[in-house]
Amino acid sequence: MPELPEVETTIRGLRPVLQGARIERLLLRRADLRRPFPPDLGQRLTGATVVGLARRAKYGLIDTDRGDTMIFHLGMSGRWRVDPSETLTHDHLIVETGAGRTLALNDPRRFGSVDLIETAAIGDYPAFVAMGPEPLGPDLDAALLYRVFEGRMAPVKAMLLDQRIVAGLGNIYVCEALHVAGIAPSRAAGRIGLARLERLVTAIRAVLVAAIEAGGSTLRDYARPDGELGYFSKQWRVYGREGEACQCGARVRRRAEGGRSTFWCATCQR
DNA sequence: ATGTCCACCTGCTGGC
DNA sequence: TGCCAGCAGGTGGACA
Q1: pLDDT greater than 80 at residue A87
Q2: Alpha helix positions (H), A30-165
Q3: Chain mean pLDDT for chain A
């Protein structure tokens, strides 16, 4: 379930296992996910020491002492399993550390990716070149959204899903943030005033922080071999709640557009 | 350029 | 019990 908060939680879960660890062995159980694995992945990572872990948008970054960074994306169904007791069908990549820990990258749908680039050239990574600001960083504010949205007739929901505008939001947290901000998902982005965009930015941050905290509270569970995570689903206000009562009493609605579902409250969101 | 749709892939659920 | 349609957190490319 990887949007920004889930990737953040994943990085926090991987850090105690990988930070400072030597990669003793790397096993590929197939040749690709969404793309082929880099052909020299094993050669460049085996024997290297992990010197840092970080997140950019929905990507996880693992830096080694050889000046390489492994960049992973979890797609729709990816997760890292920590110290699994057995290998599962969709464990595609397995890492063993010098301390005897094991990590398995499991991704049934294989929409994820693993790349390896030089750390110094991380800005050239194609997905990062035109990427927008981190929603939890200092660069996102209402004035920026106002500039970027100006004149645009596309629904604000579609704009927020565009990683070039804000990096790391996905379908769940866009639905949630728009509900918190009281903005209809279908509203043309260019027809939202600055004051409402202030509320939107505040809502985006609040929703993400709450989700990270919910994930962080289950970090102990993260280390379980089954990789189960608690996550944020119990706190969703509209996502996945079609037909249920919104806090205002109206029914939460769902609409499918372009193969994706939008959940919203037509009373609270205008 | 902008906006929309679809393909990629597997697994699960609910209806019949 | 089985089958089949519909749905799922993302991304990027192909359209009009």
Answers
A1: yes
A2: 41-45, 126-129, 142-149, 156-161
A3: 93
Give ∠ CA A244-A249-A253 in degrees, rounded to 5. Answer: 45
DSSP H helices in A75-218: 126-129, 142-149, 156-161, 171-181, 194-216
Is A3 catalytic? The answer is: yes
Name the catalytic one among A44, A55, A56, A58.
A58
pLDDT beyond 60 at A66:
yes
Residue A153, amino acid: M
Q: Confirm whether any atom of chain C, the nucleic acid strand, is less than 7 Å from CB of A78.
A: no
H-only helix segments in A4-81: 4-18, 41-45
Closest to A60 measured CA to CA, from A130, A101, A113 = A113
Which helix (H) or strand (E) element contains residue A221?
helix A219-222
Q: Does A152 participate in catalysis according to the annotation?
A: no
Is A213 catalytic? The answer is no
Mean pLDDT, residues A85-113 taken together: 96
Amino acid making up residue A15: R
DSSP 3-state percent helix, strand, coil across chain A (nearest 5)? 35, 25, 45
As a whole number of angstroms, the distance between CA A95 and CA A97 comes to 7
Taking phi first (over 0 means left), then psi (-120 to 50 degrees means alpha), and beta for anything else, what does residue A50 get? beta
Question: Residue A231: its pLDDT value, please?
Answer: 56
The helix/strand count (H/E) of chain A reads as: 8, 10
| Tens digit of each residue's pLDDT (9 = 90 or more) over A141-195 | 999 999 999 999 999 999 999 999 999 999 999 999 999 999 999 999 999 999 9
pLDDT score recorded for residue A105: 96
Q: Tell me the mean pLDDT in the region A122-126.
A: 97
Tell me the CA–C1' distance in angstroms for A90 and B12.
16
